[in-house]
Structure formats: structure tokens, C-alpha cells
Specification:
The complex is a heterodimer of chains A (393) and B (538). Chain A has 393 residues and is an alpha/beta fold. Chain A has helices at residues 3-7, 20-32, 70-81, 167-174, 191-204, 211-214, 217-226, 259-271, 364-374, 380-392; strands at 11-17, 41-42, 54-57, 62-67, 89-96, 103-114, 121-133, 154-159, 178-181, 207-210, 239-247, 275-283, 287-293, 299-307, 316-325, 328-336, 340-347, 350-358. In chain A, a hairpin with a 3-residue loop joins strand 12 (275-283) and strand 13. Chain B is globular. Classes of the chains: A alpha/beta (393), B alpha/beta (538). Chain A binds chain B through residues 1, 56, 58-61, 83-87, 115-118, 123, 217, 220-225, 227-228, 230, 233, 236, 268, 271-273, 340, 355-360, 369, 372-374, 378-380, and chain B through 27, 29-30, 32-41, 43-44, 47, 72, 75, 77-80, 188, 393, 428-429, 454-455, 457-463.
Chain lengths: 393, 538
């Protein structure tokens, strides 16, 4: 059930609360008995004469969105609205005025839409808009768990810069099942933030989903498929260079977030069982370098090179993988535009395999949908994040 | 080589049954590619051409092309993709595109149709006119496909999709073979053929058809499609059974009383009278959909999820189903035909009044059967199957009725105590329901059955793809797990053949024998009531 459909829903309910306990009690009461669910009212006049509504809460998940301001919260809601179905309960939390007095205000809304079951049952989703001010803004761990539905997974979408060193963040991680961030929007080069967050998440036993890593799925699909080809496959065990071009100024010393290009290296290293010999370090202005060792301890040089581009800083422009085997030099180059990726494999400069993949750049809605439904079972993410930690050093 | 010896590289049906292979299987792409591990899509399909036979027909417009288009929209088809529509009628490329585009408005899963995506998809569609029995049409098709390979880089990979009446399958297969369009090339170009049901009219015709297909294509190239196997909930049966620990130990005659599998439709033959006159519910639903669902419920855990391992287990179930002797068919099988009635507050006509239906037709629009599986797991557990048209509602489900507790300690509310029940709902409102006993709130200890209900629609944030999308993508990826193997088809016919024989030999049935909008003939109820059971109220 999507927000699009529930906004035109048959039943709705709203209320407000000034404490967490009050919000929890109001919603509990609504679902405690069919008598209480009579408070769900119909927008449609013709429905007002119908019998008692059969309304059930969906059993999908809890989602807590920590948004950097009301505008971002509204934006998050609009992204959620594009999903085919919604979490059972969504908390939009806007921390504000950290130095002011402790405040808590919640607007509670329930929307229901008729299911296709044919028996008139409506499936309902709950939205809680929460303003937390002053010290309460620093104690989100005291808000999210009590307002989460029991026995459903709780996902935390931290749609703001995150500092895993903060005690509240670490406590919050202990109370959720998965945390979703966007490494590409973290301040500075973003590497230390991701390293610390990955470590904190692992320590708390919580899965971490990074939009920045998901975005590169189309690159990974293309690269992996190119190595399915019989002419390229033998070079997979002879890779000795990985070069990533990313959008940035080659001459500027201003920090550019390089989480996305670094993830390419972390993925390849984790799949090839390569280890970090020299961690990533800045060289020549905005470029980065590292050295890996493959499973047989052969060196693999890593370069992240900034190139001038109209795309956002830190966006991957090209991935090049080099390998030498029995006197032949292999090079795979993958580039992408907004709708596709194009991969070219060459041996000694001659093209041996070329493919274009229909693979559009993912929208925020796609990223969120993927994160909500598949992040938990993404078998790649933990290994990549661990490799990323070692790569960052 | 004796005249009977098949050409090199071709397996006889007997070879296939015995598991012999005459050609070394092509190396499985990506099998040892460590970069492949963990990716969401196992493999992006290779560049390819889909040749759609019967492209102007209903199935192509309603299911196949919308599925291909949705795969395109979902970026699950390669950039180097082409669709060649093969049909008898004269169409230009532009006319077939316009015709398919019009159909998309009616049949697309995602609307409105993305015009930009459609334009890119349509640019890859061409039409090839020819009769299925004209050798010249295949020769020119061969030339055309070679040109597409050169111009579009489709690498010689071809999927032939037979969305035609079953009577055309042999001539199309022969035509493809005679033109050399079945040969897989040394540089890896694959050739696969998707064949729609019905696969034969009985065992004899199925064996014959398998033999015809086997003369041209190796079994590994053949994908016999039963779209039920592509449905999300059907695929979930394996996950449910073998991905959870708690159900498998009780999936056994010790705990299960019986199993009911229902495929109920509220619609009639909907203009397909001529087709239905040739098939009937037994051939149209029981021989394939119902028996496929039964195999998934009854099969033993496969060693792995490879196509052969899965299909081996399904075939074992079919072979373990106790054949119904011709003389006892009337005790285990009930057929029916709908008369006039009311469905959904609409007056409906009798089957015999449908267009293209013989006014004295004996074709069954309803079938119910009681089957037993002779193996250690299921001995003594009846499987009741039913399928029908013009029933009160559309519902497909598998109901596992557990046995009663050995001793009832608590009084129940209602007329009779209910045992545990597990229902796998396939359509509509896909999901799984577990019925168990709970205490009624109050001072007493009254017990009432309650439902623990999982619905796909309220538990996931993603939508299920259409079954055809799943299956066509699998065929493009070379995964035959959800397709029916030759011996599987034949094993299913072996179960159905005695029923057909008995009906042919028996007296003329009294038709129609159920009113539209009811749950079939009363004899179907008696199939269960005489054993102290009843069909579930759906």
C-alpha cells in the first residue's frame, strides 16, 4: 500500500501527543479492540453508512527517519510516497534547537486503504511526525524503541550527517535492526565517517545499508558480467591495477567525498580476497592511492583520480581494471551515463568484448526501496564494509 | 550410422529419460566468477533475439509482450535485444508495433506506459510474415536473424517463443530444425525454445510431441512453460517448506490429515469456446497447474536448487501417485459443466450457450479428483484437487489440513472443533494463513480458532512481478528450474490418461450438472463427505 493510495484512503485517524507514553497509548488504544477502531473515519460520505470497518495494521516494519529539518522530513515522506507499499509505522523525527529546553511534540496519523482481498479489509499504516527539542534531541534512543511496533524489524534512516562517536547514536544503533545512511553526503572525504559507523554498527550487531554502496550496483553488475566472458575470465586472477576516475577538481585541495569510488575498490578487493597493504592516502592534491595484495600476495595498485566533470563531486566517472597474464595486457574500462553503463574489454589494446547495459542511475526512491526490502539480506555489504574499513586504515 | 540413429548431438527421448547426454553441455557461464557472488541479479541476460511465434495472437498481446516490455522497463533485458514477431497475417513493422502498443494499455502491469521506454523497446521490434508450415519462411527468418546479429550485436543468441495453438508446435519445431535455426554456435550463441501448454492431449500425443521436439532440440534447450510455476506464492512454497525449520518435521502423514488444492475461477470460457471444447478442465488445469502445485507440496527436499535436482524430485512425486484404474475413475474423479446461473450479481449463460461451443457438448468445465501418493511420507493422506469455471469466486489455494489433537481438553465455541489448518493463498491476496486454537477472552476457557495471517500485500514494500516476467527472464538466463521437463509432462499424463479413457468408454454424462455461481456438482462434495471431510469454504 503506497502513500499515494492511502492519501485517497477509505479510513483515516489523527491525533497529537506531548509525550512518548501518550503517543504510544493513543495508538495502542486504537488497535486494542474493534470498538476503538470505530474512531477510524471515512472521508467518503457514502462510506459513513457502512458497517464497522475491518482495519488491520500492516506487518511490514518500523521505519525511523531522522531528518535534518522539517524540509528534509517532508522530502523523506515524499520519497516514501513513491514506494509501492509502506512501513507499518514511520517515525519522522526532526531534532531541533539542541541548546533549548527539552520538548516533545508528536502528530499521529493513521491511513488505511482497502486490500484486494475482497472482504472489505483495510490495511493501515501509521505516520508519527515528531519534533524533539533541546536535550530530547540528543536522546533519540529514548524515543525510537518505545514507539516501535513489537516484533517487527526497526530500520533507522539517518538522513543527515551522522557521527558514530556520539553516545546517543551508538545507543540508538543498539535498538534497531538496520541503519540506512548515505555515505556520499557525509562531510569531508566521508571515509572516516563510514569507517567509524561501520565499526559501530558491527559492534552493535546492526546491519548497515549505505545508499552510496547501493548506487554502484549497476557498475558491479556490468563488471561481473564482463568477467563471465571466456576471453576476460582468465585475467580475473591476474589483476594488478584498479583505477577509479571520479568527479572532482584535479588541482583543488578542497575535500571531496570519495566514498563512492572507494567502495568500488572495497568490493573488488573483498571478492578477490585481496588484503590492504597500504591504506588509502591522499596524493597530489585530490588524488588518492593505495596498494592491495591479491590472494597470492601479488601487488594491486589502487588509484582514485579526480577528473573535471559536470557531475556532482565524488561521482564515479570510470572504473578501469588492469591485468597482466602470460605476456598479455588486459584492460577493462566501464563508464556510465544516466541511463546505461558501457564496458569495453581489451587485450593488448584490441577490443575483445564490448557491451552496453541498460542501467539507469538510481533515484532516491529506488535506493530507499532497495534498502528497505533487501538491505538486510545483502550478502555483500558486510564484507565490503569490513574491507572498506581496512582500506581506509 | 543406422537410419534410426539420431544425428550427432541429438538425444532420443529414451536417452533423456535415462539421463544420457549426447553432447557435452556448454560450460556454465559465470560459474566460477567470484565477482558474480552476492549480486542481486544472478546474471544479466546475454544479448539476444526473441522470436515470437503467434505474435498477433491473444497470448502474445496479453502476456508475452507485456512481460518482455516490463523486463525492458526494469532494465532486465540487455541493450542489444531484438524481438522478431512471426505471424501468418500481413503486418508491417510499424503495424505490429502499433497493435502491441494498443494492447499494452489494456494489459501492462504498470500503467501508464512509459512512452520513452516504449519508443526504445518498439525500435527493436520487427515483423516477419510467414506460414508455420512454409520452409521459405524459416529460410528468410534465418537470413533476417543473421542480419540482426550483425547489425545489433545479438551474438547469435535466440529464444524461440511458441505462443501459438498447440497444433502448430510440431511444424514450427520442424521448420526451425530444417532451417538449422536450432544449432548452437561454437562461439557460444545459444538457442532455446519456450513451448506453451497444452503439451499434448494425452500421454501418446505428449510422447509424440516430445519426440518431435527432441529430434531438433536437446532437452536442455527446451523450456515448457506452466505460468503457475512463475507465480510468487508458488515459488514461495519451496522457501516456505525448505527455508523454515518448523514446518518440515510435521509435513508428514503422521500430522497431516489431507490436502486440498483448489483453482476456482468465476469467469466462463470468455470467448475461448473453441479452445475449451478441445481441452476441458482436466487437460487445461488438472494435468498441469494442479499437479504441479501438488508436486511442490509433496516433493522431498532437493539436494540443491539446480533445475535437474528440483525436477527430479517433482517427477518422483508424479511417479508415486497411485494410478486410478479406469473402472474406478467414477469413485475418485468428478466432472461437471456449468449451466446458467448468477455470478457476482450478474446473470450468466450455460457453457453450452457460449460461442463456438457445441450445444450438446460434454466438455467438463469442472473437475475434482482424489489422489493418493504411495510413498513413506504421504501414504494414506488423500490429496483432493478441484478446478472449475463459473464458481462463486476466483481463488487458488493449497490447504494443508492437520489432524486433530489426540485428546480435546477444552470446550469449543461453535458446532465442531477445528484442527490446525495451513493455507497457501496463490491468488488473489497472495499469502499464508495458519489457523490455530485460542482462548476466547472471558472468565471461562472457551476455545475458538483464530488466524495468523501473512499477506504479501502487507508485508513487503515491493510488488510481485508477473509470472511471465519471472519465467521469461529465467529462460533468457538459461535457468530451467521452473519449467517442466519431458519426463515430467509424460508422468503427469500417465495420471490423467486413465481418467480420459474412462470418460470416453463410460456412459454419456448428464450435463450441465452445476449451476453457475455454485461450487460445482454435488458429487464433488460427496468425494469428501463420504470420508468425513468437506471442501473448504472459500
Amino acid at each position: 500500500m503506497s502513500l499515494n493510495s492511502i492519501l485517497a484512503s477509505s479510513l483515516r485517524w489523527s491525533s497529537s501527543a506531548s509525550t512518548v507514553a501518550e503517543a504510544d497509548a493513543l495508538l495502542d488504544k486504537l488497535w486494542a479492540s474493534s470498538e476503538a477502531r470505530r474512531f477510524l473515519v471515512s472521508d467518503s460520505p457514502k462510506d459513513s453508512t457502512t458497517a464497522e470497518p475491518i482495519a488491520v495494521r500492516t506487518g511490514v516494519m518500523n521505519l525511523a527517519v531522522v531528518a535534518n529539518g522539517e524540509e528534509r522530513a517532508a522530502h523523506a515522506a515524499s520519497v516514501l510516497a513513491t514506494l509501492p507499499r509502506n512501513p507499518s509505522r514511520t517515525l519522522f523525527i526532526v531534532p531541533r534547537d539542541p541548546d533549548g529546553p527539552a520538548t516533545f511534540a508528536a502528530r499521529l496519523e493513521v491511513f488505511c486503504a482497502v486490500t484486494p482481498r475482497g472482504d472489505g479489509t483495510s490495511a493501515c499504516t501509521e505516520l508519527l511526525w515528531i519534533d524533539a527539542g533541546g536535550p530530547a534531541a540528543h536522546h533519540l534512543a529514548s524515543i525510537v524503541p518505545p514507539l516501535s511496533l513489537h516484533d517487527l524489524p526497526t530500520l533507522l534512516w539517518w538522513d543527515a550527517p551522522i557521527n558514530a562517536a556520539e553516545s546517543d547514536v551508538r545507543q540508538l544503533l543498539r535498538g534497531v535492526d538496520r541503519v540506512i545512511v548515505d555515505g556520499a553526503t557525509q562531510p569531508g572525504d566521508g571515509l572516516a565517517t563510514i569507517r567509524d559507523l561501520a565499526a559501530a554498527a558491527e559492534s552493535a550487531g546492526v546491519a548497515l545499508t549505505d545508499f552510496a554502496l547501493l548506487r554502484q550496483g549497476r557498475w558491479r553488475d556490468s563488471i561481473a558480467t564482463m568477467f563471465d566472458d571466456v576471453s576476460s575470465a582468465p585475467y580475473l586472477n591476474a589483476i594488478n591495477s584498479i583505477t577509479i576516475d571520479f568527479s572532482g577538481s584535479p588541482t583543488s585541495s578542497a575535500p571531496v567525498n570519495v566514498v563512492r569510488p572507494a567502495y568500488h575498490v572495497a568490493w573488488l578487493a573483498s571478492r578477490l580476497r585481496a588484503t590492504t597493504h597500504t591504506p588509502l592516502h591522499a596524493v597530489d592534491g585530490a588524488a588518492w592511492s593505495a596498494e592491495l595484495r591479491d590472494a597470492l600476495r601479488h601487488p594491486i595498485t589502487v588509484s582514485l583520480n579526480p577528473v573535471a566533470s559536470v557531475l556532482g563531486a565524488g561521482t564515479t566517472i570510470a572504473v578501469r581494471i588492469g591485468a597482466d597474464r602470460r605476456g598479455d595486457h588486459f584492460e577493462l574500462e566501464v563508464r556510465a551515463d544516466s541511463t546505461s553503463t558501457r564496458a569495453t574489454a581489451m587485450i593488448n589494446g584490441a577490443v575483445v568484448h564490448e557491451r552496453t547495459f541498460q542501467a539507469p542511475r538510481w533515484t532516491e526512491a529506488t535506493l530507499l526501496s532497495e534498502s528497505l526490502e533487501y538491505g538486510e539480506v545483502d550478502p555483500l555489504s558486510p564484507a565490503i564494509l569490513r574491507t572498506m574499513g581496512a582500506l581506509i586504515g | 550410422m543406422s537410419p534410426q540413429t539420431p544425428p550427432e548431438g541429438h538425444a532420443t527421448i529414451r536417452d533423456l529419460r535415462l539421463g544420457k547426454k549426447t553432447r557435452k553441455p556448454a560450460a556454465k557461464k559465470g560459474a566460477k566468477n567470484p565477482l558474480r557472488a552476492g549480486l542481486r541479479i544472478e546474471r544479466v541476460p546475454d544479448p539476444h533475439v526473441v522470436v515470437l511465434f503467434g505474435a498477433t495472437g491473444d497470448l502474445a498481446h496479453r502476456k508475452v509482450v507485456p512481460a518482455l516490455f516490463h523486463l525492458w522497463v526494469g532494465n532486465l533485458l540487455p541493450e542489444r535485444f531484438a524481438l522478431v514477431c512471426f505471424g501468418r497475417r500481413p503486418f508491417s513493422d510499424q503495424e505490429i508495433r502499433t497493435s502491441l502498443r494498443t494492447s499494452l494499455d489494456k494489459h501492462a502491469r504498470i500503467t501508464p506506459v512509459d512512452e520513452e521506454k516504449w519508443a526504445a523497446f518498439a525500435a527493436r521490434i520487427t515483423y516477419h510474415q510467414g506460414g508455420f508450415d512454409e520452409p521459405a519462411a524459416y529460410a528468410s527468418l534465418s537470413t533476417k536473424l543473421a542480419a540482426i546479429d550483425t547489425e545489433s550485436g545479438t551474438d547469435g543468441n535466440r529464444l524461440y517463443y511458441l505462443a501459438t495453438p498447440a497444433s502448430s508446435f510440431p511444424e514450427i519445431v520442424r521448420g526451425l530444425g530444417a532451417a538449422g535455426l536450432d544449432h548452437e554456435t561454437a562461439d557460444g550463441g545459444w538457442r532455446r525454445i519456450v513451448i506453451e501448454k497444452p503439451f499434448g492431449r494425452d500421454l501418446e500425443t505428449a510422447v509424440k510431441l516430445n519426440r518431435e521436439v527432441g529430434k531438433v532440440f536437446r532437452e536442455s534447450q527446451v523450456y515448457r512453460i506452466d505460468h503457475y510455476l512463475g507465480k510468487e506464492t508458488v515459488r514461495n512454497i519451496l522457501i516456505f517448506r525448505f527455508g523454515n525449520l518448523i514446518f518440515e518435521p510435521i509435513w508428514h502423514r503422521r500430522y497431516i490429515d489431507h490436502v486440498q488444492i483448489t483453482v476456482a475461477e468465476s469467469i466462463g470460457v470468455e470467448g475461448r469456446g473453441a479452445f475449451y471444447e478441445e481441452t476441458g478442465a482436466l487437460r487445461d488445469i488438472l494435468q498441469n497447474h494442479l499437479l504441479q502445485l501438488l508436486t511442490l507440496v509433496a516433493m522431498e527436499p532437493p539436494a540443491n536448487l539446480e533445475a535437474e535436482a528440483l525436477r527430479d524430485e517433482k517427477v518422483k512425486v508424479l511417479r508415486a501417485i497411485r494410478p486410478i484404474p479406469v473402472e474406478k475413475v467414477d469413485q475418485s474423479v468428478v466432472r461437471g459443466q456449468y449451466g446458467p446461473g448468477w455470478v457476482g450479481a450478474t446473470e450468466t449463460s450455460a457453457y453450452r450457450s457460449e460461442p463456438a461451443v457445441d450445444p450438446a457438448s460434454e466438455t467438463e468445465t469442472f473437475v475434482a479428483a482424489r489422489l493418493e501418493i504411495d510413498d513413506w511420507r504421504w501414504a494414506g493422506v488423500p490429496f483432493y484437487l478441484r478446478a472449475g469455471k463459473r464458481l462463486p469466486k476466483r481463488a487458488t489455494e493449497i490447504a494443508i489440513q492437520f489432524k486433530d489433537v489426540p485428546q480435546r481438553l477444552f470446550p469449543t465455541v461453535g458446532e465442531e472443533p477445528e484442527s490446525n489448518l495451513l493455507v497457501i493463498r496463490i491468488q488473489p491476496d497472495e499469502g499464508i494463513l495458519l489457523k490455530f486454537a485460542a482462548k476466547v477472552p472471558g472468565l471461562g476457557i472457551d476455545v475458538r480458532p483464530v488466524n495468523m495471517d501473512f499477506a504479501y500485500g502487507s508485508a513487503f514494500t515491493v510488488e510481485s512481478p508477473d509470472a511471465y516476467e519471472t519465467l521469461i527472464l529465467d529462460a533468457l538466463l538459461g535457468d530451467a528450474s521452473l519449467f517442466t521437463r519431458a519426463d515430467e509432462v509424460e508422468a503427469a499424463w500417465r495420471i490423467v490418461d486413465p481418467i480420459i479413457d474412462a470418460w470416453i468408454a463410460g456412459p454419456e454424462p448428464e450435463m450441465p450438472n452445476y449451476t453457475s455461481g455454485t461450487w460445482g456438482p454435488e458429487a464433488a462434495d460427496e468425494l469428501l463427505t463420504r470420508e468425513g471431510r468437506r471442501w473448504r469454504r472459500l
